[in-house]
Amino acid sequence: MSDALINGLAGAGGGIIAQLLTYPLQTVNTRQQTERGLKNEKRKLGTVDRLFQVVKQEGWTQLYGGLAPSLVGTAASQGVYYYFYQIFRNKAQAAALQQKRNGFGDGSVGMLSSLIVAAFSGCVNVLLTNPIWLVVTRMQTHTKKPLAKGSVNVAHEEEVIAAVEPPPYGTAHVIQEVYGEAGILGFWKGVFPTLVMVSNPAIQFMLYETLLKKLKKRRASSNKVVKDVTALEIFLLGALAKLGATVVTYPLLVVKARLQAKQITGGDKRHQYKGTLDAILKMIRYEGFYGFYKGMSTKIVQSVLAAAVLFMVKEELVKGTRWLLTNNTANNVRMPS
């Protein structure tokens, strides 16, 4: 099994676990990002209040709206990203070693090279998985309207509910809706800000690799017995790296969510967006720069926790897989022919 495939599968596994743990926060954050509040409106509910509001009015299952396609998207995104990241990084490492043989550098992949590798991997990931995340955004922002109590006769309540409640807003429904609105190209709405958003994981991995490299170097230069980097240290490094990347790129994430959420036709034109530039200009004009940072505190908690869990689980899965493969190879060699 190639090193790229091991990292790809481990990344998918880590991404799924992180997604399951933090999905309610992601749902709340997407709703906060897509709120079309104007400058003079009162501040919206905080993270905890919004969580309780969704559970009270729509049921706790609504916090997991779009979970199935989201898990598929997470597995696909992390698998694709880590697979191509390892391939591009191997090429960058080979180029660095070749430069060392030519008398340039120390043979290690530098910060700029790490940034480029992460950016290329992110672009491939975005182009392949954007349709999945558009479906997830639609399902997360879909509001399940509660029926008014006391407005119907109990004897006929079941008949009224069956007549009033819309059919389930599932993956197939969203796909038909998006295709009906804009055809095949509709599934790539928000792809431009998403492509620019590859700077988020690029910055994240650049910071992570740099911090990890410094930690290993410091540990190797100390007089103490050199130990492997622990799972807790990987967790903390992943959290720090994601925190820095999120703060820098959050406005782009808000614009992407606005474009991918369902546009209400016939409503307020101030909240309808024709494209990325139109969304940015309208948000600045009607909501101010605060609009670009709606739900940021929720996103920091969710993304930092998810990234930390992802890095920790992914590294442990890679170590475990390599150990199993090494032991199997060793056992096969010892077996008599």
From TrEMBL:
Residue windows of the Solcar repeats: 2-91, 109-214, 229-320
Q: Where in the cell is it found?
A: Membrane
Pfam families, sorted: Mito_carr
- Looking at the UniProt entry, the stretches that span the membrane are 109-128, 187-208, 229-253
For the biological process aspect of GO, one term held by this record is:
transmembrane transport
PROSITE patterns with a match to the protein in the record: SOLCAR
Q: Which UniProt keywords apply?
A: Membrane, Repeat, Transmembrane, Transmembrane helix, Transport
User: Does the record bear Transcription in its keywords?
Assistant: no
InterPro entries for the chain: MCP_dom_sf, MCP_transmembrane, SLC25A32-like
Please state the protein's primary subcellular location: membrane
Give membrane topology per the record: Multi-pass membrane protein
| Signal peptide positions (record) | none
* UniProt keyword Magnesium, yes or no: no
Sorted alphabetically, the Gene Ontology cellular component annotations on this record are: membrane
Please name the PANTHER family in this protein's record: MITOCHONDRIAL NICOTINAMIDE ADENINE DINUCLEOTIDE TRANSPORTER 1-RELATED-RELATED
State the similarity comment: Belongs to the mitochondrial carrier (TC 2.A.29) family.
Protein name according to UniProt: Transporter
Q: Organism, per UniProt?
A: Lithospermum erythrorhizon
